[in-house]
Design brief:
368 residues; alpha/beta; Arc Repressor Mutant, subunit A; Nucleotidyltransferase, domain 5; 5-stranded mixed β-sheet; 16 strands; globular
């Protein structure tokens, strides 16, 4: 039986096995059918049937014979075809502009496009999002697997932005609006959650328990536990930007004083750096320490292996990172942080775009 008591039908099993083979090829060098059978615990007959179907669709391709060293005829190696599909992905998190890209299945950028928001909000801004998505889909030179969108705010599983204050969006069905102008599936997620999916899907080595912290106009995080994105009942998991860290601090946009955002978000931090008169390390260290103290119970309670920071290089540099790491190590048990790592995202500039691709690849192909 499947979740919820639904009977497991043959097509469900076949779909799951197809996703298992694609995930295996996604994370490995080319493999023979026999190697795939051993790696997935599927029968050789099942593997051959699924591989043949995937090859006919163009998602996998033969990559030549296996290296010599075995008796008999060399096996044919199978590899994922990264250019079988394109993914159109949008990053809405910059506020001043909307950024989109066409990527292949492994996250290589094929084309980028940006449009200024010109202060647009509400339905006017949504129209710009739809136009950008449509333009990119039309520009793709191969089949488009889907559109992935990373948006600020609280986003539910149906692509509805429950609230994005900066955009004037409340209970706005962004997914449905974009679906009306493109002929492919559309998936929408919070921008930090999308970035977390990127860190999980495209990170090397693969880490199953991590938090991705986005430091920009605000601060948000996406959390992956046991390889799955954690969203919470209200889709607010990872909303750490408005955790109180300084009761006497500046007034935050939420109306309270001393939230993490007014201590460590980019606009506030850069203003203090400009006023620091040369002592910038102290400012960065204080901000990093504040973030580390907020993250400590998250790391300890969930047993996270890794925290990945995404933000401007002048903010999330070594001083900031080391201060955050020191705070976590100071406030958590040593056994919690023995193998713990905190690092800067390798593709910080386009990690939300990469996350949109990861979202589509996960939902449409089962590659997670």
């Amino acid at each position: 039986m499947r979740a919820g008591g639904e009977k497991a039908l043959p097509e469900h099993t076949r779909r799951a096995n197809r996703s298992l083979i694609l995930r295996t090829l996604f994370r490995s060098d080319p493999m023979s059918r026999a190697d795939l059978a051993r790696a997935t615990d599927l029968t050789r007959v099942s593997v051959s049937r699924i591989v043949d179907d995937l090859a006919a669709e163009g998602i996998v391709r033969e990559s030549g014979p296996s290296p010599e060293g075995r008796v008999g005829k060399p096996s044919t190696l199978i590899a994922l075809n990264p250019d079988a599909y394109h993914v159109v992905t949008l990053d809405l998190s910059a506020y001043a502009e909307l950024t989109g890209a066409i990527m292949n299945l492994v996250g290589d950028v094929v084309h980028t496009m940006s449009v200024p928001t010109d202060g647009a909000r509400g339905e006017e801004l949504l129209a710009k999002v739809c136009a950008l998505a449509s333009a990119l889909v039309k520009r793709s030179t191969v089949r488009v697997l889907g559109v992935g969108i990373g948006s600020p705010g609280v986003v539910n599983a149906d692509g509805v932005v429950r609230e994005a204050v900066a955009f004037g969006w409340r209970d706005l069905d962004v997914g449905a609006a974009v679906s009306a102008v493109v002929p492919v599936p559309v998936h929408v997620a919070n921008d930090a959650n999308a970035a977390a999916l990127a860190a999980r899907t495209y990170g090397q080595p693969v880490v199953d328990n991590l938090a991705l912290v986005r430091i920009g106009q605000g601060i948000g995080s996406g959390v992956i536990v046991a390889g799955a994105l954690v969203t919470g009942e209200r889709f607010t998991a990872g909303e750490i930007g408005h955790v109180l860290v300084d009761e006497g601090g500046e007034v935050c946009r939420c109306g309270r004083r001393g939230c993490l955002e007014v201590v460590a978000a980019t606009p506030f931090l850069r203003r203090r750096l400009a006023d620091a008169e040369g002592d910038t390390d102290a400012v960065l260290a204080a901000a990093g320490q504040a973030l580390g103290r907020v993250l400590t119970p998250v790391v300890a309670a969930l047993g996270l292996e890794q925290v990945v920071l995404s933000g401007p290089p002048d903010v999330v540099g070594d001083v900031f990172l080391q201060a955050a790491k020191a705070a976590i190590e100071h406030e958590a048990l040593a056994i919690v942080t023995d193998d713990f790592e905190i690092r800067v995202a390798v593709r910080g500039d386009d990690i939300v775009l990469l996350g949109g691709t990861a979202l589509v690849v996960a939902e449409e192909l089962g590659i997670r």
